[in-house]
Structures are given as C-alpha cells and as structure tokens.
Write a structure and sequence with these properties.
Largest sheet of chain B: 6 strands, mixed
Strand order of the largest sheet of chain A: 1-2
Shape of chain A: globular
Largest interface: A-B, 17 and 26 residues
Shape of chain B: globular
Helix content of chain B: 25-40%
Radius of gyration of chain A: 19 Å
Strand content of chain A: under 5%
Order of helices and strands of chain A: HHHHEEHHHHHHH
Number of helices of chain B: 11
Structural class of chain A: mainly alpha
Distance between the termini of chain A: 42 Å
Order of helices and strands of chain B: EEEHEEHEHHHHHEHEHEEHH
Mean pLDDT of chain B: 93
Low-confidence stretches of chain B: none
Number of helices of chain A: 11
Low-confidence stretches of chain A: none
Bound molecules: adenosine-5'-triphosphate, magnesium ion
Mean pLDDT of chain A: 91
Structural class of chain B: alpha/beta
Oligomer: heterodimer
Radius of gyration of chain B: 17 Å
Largest sheet of chain A: 2 strands, antiparallel
Number of domains of chain A: 1
Chain lengths: 288, 236
C-alpha cells in the first residue's frame, strides 16, 4: 500500500506540471483557433528556444531570468518566421498538405538540432532546493514554473479579452471573412497571433529549462501529450485545454507513483482513446 | 459622376460564372435595390463590390477610384460597408465588442465614441444589451447589430444583403423602418432583398437580376407596376 502522503505529493506535482502543459496547449490552441492549422512542430520550437536559454545562460553567462526572457524573444521570432516562411504559402492548401508541411518542419528542427548541438542532454544548472510544505516536498523550480505559467495565462486572458487587438484575434477565430469586412487584414492578425503563440512557446521553454535538460528529441517527449490535451479539450477551446492539461498531468503524476511514469503515460493515452469515442468534440462539448 | 459604378462586371467561383456583364450605378444619396430569385447572383454582386471576390472582367469604380481586385479589408477603408448575408456577427463577442470591431479602421477607431452614440441613438435596444453575447440576441436584434457594426466603420455606402431574412413578419416591418431611418441619416445604400414589396417602398431605383444578368432596371415606382415583377416576386 502506498503511503497517502506520496499520493498527495504526486497530486501536487501533477498540478505543477499541468501549469506548463496548459501553457503549451493554450499556445497551440490559440494558433489553431485563428488559422485553422495545427502546428505539429510547436513543441520543437520550444526545444529550439530551450537551446537558446541554455546557450544564453550557460555559455554567455546571462542571469537565468534574462536568459529566460531571451528564450521568449527567440520564441516570438520563431513564431513569426514559421508563419511567414511556412504557413503563409500554404494557407489555402488542403489540411493534409498543411499537416505535412508543419510535420516536415518538426523533422527539420530535430535534425538541425542534432547536427548543430549533438544528441547530448544539456541542462541549465539552477541550484534551488526542494521546499517542504507540511511533509510534502515540492521542487522549487517546479513551483516557480507553475506560478509563472499561471501568471502568463492570466496575462493571455487579459490580452485576449481586454485589448483591442486581442478582441480582434477572438473575432477572427469566430469569422475570418467577417473580420476582413471590418477592415482587418487577415495576414496582420495571423502574424500577431503567431507571435503571441511563439511567445507562449518561449515562456514554456524558459520554464521547462529550469526543470528538464534539453535535447533534439525534446519535442517527442512533450509534443504528443500537448496534442492530446488540445484534442481532449476540444481543438480551439481554451477553457477545455486548460482543464484537460490538469486532468492529463494528474494521471501521469499519480500513475507515476502508483505504478511507474511509463504506466502513467499509458493510462493517459488509453483515456485519450476512450474519450475520443465517448466525446470526440472534447470534454466540454455537448453530447449529440 | 456616379458614386459607385460597375461596368460589364463578370465574376464567379472557380469555373462557374455567377455574374455576366453586369453594369450598375448608384448615385450619391440614392437607395437602390437589387431583386431577383434565389441563385440569381445578388450575393455575388455585393461580394464583388466589397472585394470578397475579385471581378474576372469589367471595372468597379467608387468615388472615382477603381476598386477592382482590391481585397475586402482595403475596400472598407474607401467607405463601403457590407452587411453580409446571414449577418455574420461574432457570436461569442458581446454587443459592445462587435461594435468595437466594426470600428477596426484607424480612422473609425478615432471616432469610436461619436459613432457609438449615433448607433445607440438609432438602435436603443442594442445600447441596453452592451454586455450580452451577440449569439444570444433575437434575430431582429442581431440584424440591428449587424447594421450598427457596419455603421461603426463610418461608411458612405452601405451594402445590405437580405436584411429581413429569417425575421418574423412584424420584425420585418420594424426592420424596414429602421433602415429608412438609417437612410435619413444621409447614407447611400444598395439593398439586396427577397421582400420586393417592402424594399420597393424604400428605394429610389431597382435592378432585377436573373441568372447572373441584369434583366430590368428602373424607378422603383415604375418597376413595381411591371406585371411580371409583381407576379413573380411580389406574390400577387
Ligand atoms: N462559394 C460559392 N462557390 C460556388 N458557387 C457559388 C458560391 N456561392 C454562390 N455560388 C453559386 O453562384 C450562384 C449565385 O449565387 P448567389 O449566392 O450570388 O445568389 P443569390 O442571388 O444571392 O441567391 P439567394 O437569394 O439564395 O441568396 C448560384 O448558382 C450559387 O450556387
Ligand atoms: Mg444571396
């Protein structure tokens, strides 16, 4: 029998993990909601931004917070570049071609990262202790990552609901054609959205850097779970993605202490498949 | 010179041609109707004018400037607002947010407060529902919002595509009254309608479109006398 304290600890760690996963899922969902394109390579952009954080901090000696901001800047630049170089030419192509193009980018990024930086795991050393809260140990970097990801998501919410351009982004996600009739150049809105999505990837990169080491296949570790969360929450549904992030992270974390981390993933994927039959429109979709 | 002039415009979708050599003019201050049966190309005509689809041949001149081939977001900056078929509101945005999006153009954004007052004066029902989601409004209110949103861009010419579609008969009459009031504010308008009898009471001139061609045009009063228009479209 497992000591209940471990379960509580796992649950707390699950919530912490859920924060960063939600960040990834919301970034991916934001872009999908506006452009109707799934950036298959989204978490691979995170991987590239994590290398940026690593080099800025470990090679150029920037303080960690500044290196993190550098990662965000790199994320924004990547988001805009991906839109202009890859998405713009295929905007009107069939969805299959779009998936292939962004999927191709994934392999390109993995290969180029392997070529440039080898397959070695590289980590940003942050010597922060675990903290104890009533018998539960929580890693300090995880706590920081969780709090910052929640703050960034609150920021995203305020941006989308309180600013003019944020409102325009929501409007485009509801009706692109009508927004063009209002005088909004679709391309301009797309670029802004991709930049914001890139910024989310950059923030996630900074927050993941203090918890995990980076390697060229980092995207393979976090990519599938991110897509599952988006689909489970209902593609394009921000609230659904937020909830699904915590459902998934709890399953992985609790499954991890009860059986093993691998088993946690197996259960998460199994639940995903079951849910796809039970509720293909996502957890918040109304049943037909 | 006419405010808006279409010269032998041909347009369509892919291989399909929906408009054949359509010529049409709207004078400043006029209200003009385009009527015709389903599939005649009325919506296509408005889409060509507002830049949603480009004309294949022919020219489109507004206030002396050729707009042929300009994308929709540039056309609206020239002063043409399009109230599209089916309203096309942003259903999850509030009434206030929908109106704000209507004022997307920098020029319109500067005059936002003033425009909002004008729209609220025209449609008091909207002013009371500022915080409500557009999708939760009644059909009539949604149409008012669609018109109000178009006014927010401070247009000179407004294109209406079947504003009475899907409304209850009582609401249709109220809507035509409201459009009449919009007209009294000095806007020039081009209205596509199935409700021929009502729209002919409102406009100065009308065009009859059939399978992509202009079949007839004339003063509204004369056109409503024409026997086949009455039979086919007024339903007498
Ligand atoms: N997006 C489209 N793609 C292909 N064909 C289209 C498209 N939209 C309209 N059409 C075709 O073009 C023709 C004209 O359509 P349009 O919508 O302009 O007619 P309408 O006069 O507005 O009809 P309604 O009274 O039903 O609104 C029709 O034959 C229609 O099937
Ligand atoms: Mg139509």
């Amino acid at each position: 029998m497992i000591d209940p304290i471990f379960l509580v600890e796992a649950a707390v760690n699950g919530i912490m993990l859920g924060g960063v996963l939600a960040l990834l899922a919301l970034g991916l969902n934001l872009i999908f909601g506006v452009l109707d394109i799934v950036w298959i390579a989204y978490v691979d952009l995170v991987m590239v931004a994590m290398y940026a954080v690593y080099f800025l901090v470990m090679v150029y000696g920037w303080p960690i917070w500044l290196g993190g901001l550098g990662g965000v800047v790199v994320g924004v630049a990547l988001g805009i570049l991906v839109h202009l170089l890859i998405i713009t030419p295929i905007l009107d192509s069939p969805p299959v071609n779009q998936l292939l193009a962004t999927g191709g980018l994934l392999f390109f990024l993995q290969s180029i990262a392997t070529f440039l930086w080898s397959t070695d795991h590289k980590s940003v050393r942050v010597s922060l202790p675990s903290i104890e809260l009533g018998g539960i140990f929580v890693s300090y970097p995880r706590l920081i990552a969780f709090v910052l990801s929640i703050l960034v998501m609150v920021g995203l919410y305020l941006f989308l609901t309180r600013t003019f351009i944020g409102t325009a982004i929501r409007a485009v996600s509801q009706d692109r054609g009508a927004m063009a009739l209002m005088g909004a150049s679709p391309q301009k809105i797309y670029v802004v959205t991709s930049a914001v999505g890139g910024a989310m990837a950059g923030v996630a990169a900074a927050l993941l850097s203090i918890q995990y080491s980076v390697h060229p296949y980092f995207g393979a570790a976090f990519g599938p779970i991110t897509f599952m969360i988006c689909v489970l929450g209902g593609l394009g549904n921000m609230v659904g993605a937020f909830i699904a992030s915590f459902v998934m992270s709890e399953i992985i974390a609790i499954g991890g202490v009860v059986w093993s981390t691998e088993m946690g993933y197996v259960i998460a994927f199994a639940l995903f498949i079951v849910m796809m039959f039970a509720r293909p429109g996502g957890i918040l979709a109304k049943r037909q | 010179m006419s405010m808006l002039e279409l010269r032998t415009v041909t347009a369509g979708y892919g291989q399909f041609t929906a408009l054949w050599d359509v010529s049409l003019a709207v004078e400043r201050g006029e209200a003009v109707a385009v009527v015709g049966p389903n599939g005649a190309g009325k919506t296509t005509l408005l889409r060509v004018i507002s830049g949603v689809i480009p004309p294949r041949h022919g020219d489109l001149v507004f206030e002396g400037a050729s707009l042929a081939g300009r994308p929709a977001h540039e056309v609206v900056a020239h002063g043409i607002a399009h109230v599209p078929e089916g309203r096309r509101l942003f259903p999850k945005l509030t009434v206030a947010e929908n109106l704000k999006m209507g004022a997307f153009l920098p020029r319109a954004r500067k005059a936002y407060r003033e425009s909002l007052e004008r729209v609220s004066a025209l449609f008091p029902a909207l002013a009371e529902r500022q915080k409500q989601r557009a999708g939760s409004l009644s059909g009539g209110e949604q149409q008012m919002l669609a018109i109000g949103r178009a006014l927010m861009s401070r247009p000179q010419l407004i294109l209406f595509d079947e504003p009475s579609m899907g409304l209850a008969p009582v609401m249709v009459l109220r809507l035509f009254d409201l459009i009449r009031r919009v007209r009294e504010e000095g806007y020039t308008m081009l209205i596509v309608e199935q409700n021929v009898r009502q729209v002919l009471k409102l406009v100065d001139r009308a065009y009859l479109l059939e399978v992509g061609r202009v079949r007839m045009e004339g003063r509204a009063a004369e056109l409503s006398e024409q026997d086949f228009v009455r039979k086919a479209y007024v339903g007498l």
